[in-house]
Description:
Chain A has a single domain, classed as Immunoglobulin-like. Chain A contains one helix and eleven strands; from the N terminus they run E-E-E-E-E-E-E-E-E-H-E-E. Chain A has one helix at 98-101, and strands at residues 5-7, 10-13, 19-24, 31-37, 44-50, 53-56, 65-68, 75-79, 88-95, 104-105, 109-113. In chain A, strands 2, 4, 5, 6, 9, 10 and 11 form a seven-stranded mixed β-sheet that branches. In chain A, strands 1-3-8-7 form a four-stranded antiparallel β-sheet, with no helix packed on it. Chain A starts with a strand and ends with a strand. By secondary structure, chain B is mainly beta. Chain B has a single domain (5-110), classed as Sandwich (Immunoglobulin-like). Chain B has strands at residues 5-7, 10-14, 19-24, 31-37, 44-49, 55-58, 61-65, 71-76, 85-92, 99-101, 105-110. In chain B, strands 2, 4, 5, 9, 10 and 11 form a six-stranded mixed β-sheet that branches. A five-stranded antiparallel β-sheet of chain B has the order 1-3-8-7-6, with no helix packed on it. In chain B, a hairpin with a 6-residue loop joins strand 9 (85-92) and strand 10 (99-101). Chain B is globular and about 45 Å long. At the A-B interface, strand 4, strand 5, strand 9, helix 1 and strand 10 of A face strand 4, strand 5, strand 9 and strand 10 of B.
Amino acid sequence: GAGVSQSPRYKVAKRGQDVALRCDPISGHVSLFWYQQALGQGPEFLTYFQNEAQLDKSGLPSDRFFAERPEGSVSTLKIQRTQQEDSAVYLCASSTGPRLYGYTFGSGTRLTVV
Amino acid sequence: TQLLEQSPQFLSIQEGENLTVYCNSSSVFSSLQWYRQEPGEGPVLLVTVVTGGEVKKLKRLTFQFGDARKDSSLHITAAQPGDTGLYLCAGVRNAGNMLTFGGGTRLMVKP
């Protein structure tokens, strides 16, 4: 597609519920990134894929967070047993070369845990 | 403590005024980028600088990368209400691919 597509745009989850957030990157973009953004703050790194390989997951806040990109295109970020502190905007970005070309971000998924 | 510190955090100015936003770190970056984010949307890339001392201009916006590649500034001339948004600096360290973001500067330009 022309841009990075994320779904759903908004998700309300009851505490303890599992959620799955989807990211469809720009076709041909090898690198895919997930970030978490709290209200009024800068994005915080969660995890990074190059094709289907997860090269860095150091930013995942707990073992309740899991990400995959099985065929090197679409990625899913899964959060198990959601907690209130998981409420945030989850941003997905893709790139052909972050150092020179930067990221193209999706519009994000706003997760609210009640 | 964030790796990239932005200042000021908030800025409210009148249309036509000039402003400068700063992005500072004690670390060296191989690339420094500026993004603008509007409510409900993802950040959008404005510019990438990779050479120490580099200056880039984008219409009324001027971006500078520090000589030591540890800091950057964004200067806006004659600000307009359409410049309102969250400005984020972000850096790539060494040979990595991951961007580290600053905390952002929220700019409001009043007509």
